[in-house]
Q: What sequence folds into this?
């Protein structure tokens, strides 16, 4: 098994296409296929903030659900969009408003199609993905060793939002513990959620959300090679969105 884990896309379709090209994928029947049988695995947060969220939904649904040529796990933005599509009263903030604007510009028929595709993708995908053949677990915001195998409320909160304390910083961002610094497992944990300037390797974990939507890069972690492939973002740089760690 050969896997290309892909960080938070957030509607950045142009960068995603360039990343697939750099990784050696070829477009066949409107989806990227690798000649060596490699498969992409998305760490969640496909939508929001970026310019082409609905196009990303169509592509990932086709890859994962229809052609079964890839993997996906949901992120917190995916969860919020899912709740919006279910008719829940969610706040259209933190980027959801961009996806909703795209959605509301469609005809009713087109809306039903994209809504159905995303809900199917979300409902039929695992909370986190265990890949024993490459000794890895893919989880949007990461996962503690003791939570692997569990799907309770604690595991769900951790996987979608990280190791949150319940407090918030002055800028409104949630306070999160640095769980990766204490990870002692033997499996790779590949995650995103928290934008970093470059992929962060800590113990046997790697954060591949290199802030494409904030002007950084879209990154992939390849297994079993254990290397990084990235393409630069076309978005405007927003330095304050990137987190730094004292490693």
A:
């Amino acid at each position: 098994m050969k896997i290309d884990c892909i960080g938070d896309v957030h509607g950045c379709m142009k960068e995603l296409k360039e990343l697939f090209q750099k990784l050696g994928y070829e477009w066949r029947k409107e989806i990227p296929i690798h000649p060596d049988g490699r498969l992409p695995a998305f760490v969640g947060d496909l939508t929001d903030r970026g310019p082409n969220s609905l196009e990303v939904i169509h592509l990932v649904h086709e890859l994962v659900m229809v052609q079964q040529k890839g993997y996906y796990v949901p992120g917190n933005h995916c969860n919020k969009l899912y709740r919006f599509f279910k008719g829940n009263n969610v706040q259209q903030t933190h980027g959801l408003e961009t996806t909703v604007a795209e959605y509301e510009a469609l005809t009713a028929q087109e809306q039903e199609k994209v809504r159905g595709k995303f809900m199917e993708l979300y409902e039929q995908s695992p909370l986190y993905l265990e890949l024993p053949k490459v000794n890895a677990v893919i989880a949007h915001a990461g996962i503690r060793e003791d939570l692997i195998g569990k799907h309770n409320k604690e595991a769900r909160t951790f996987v979608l939002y990280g190791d949150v304390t319940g407090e918030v910083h002055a800028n409104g961002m949630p306070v999160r513990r640095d769980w990766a610094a204490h990870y002692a497992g033997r499996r790779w944990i590949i995650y995103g959620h928290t934008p970093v300037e470059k992929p962060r390797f800590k113990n046997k974990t790697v954060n591949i959300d290199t802030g494409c939507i904030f002007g950084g890069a879209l990154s992939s972690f390849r297994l079993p090679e254990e290397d990084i492939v990235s393409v630069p973002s076309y978005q405007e740089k927003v330095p304050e969105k990137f987190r730094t760690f004292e490693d």
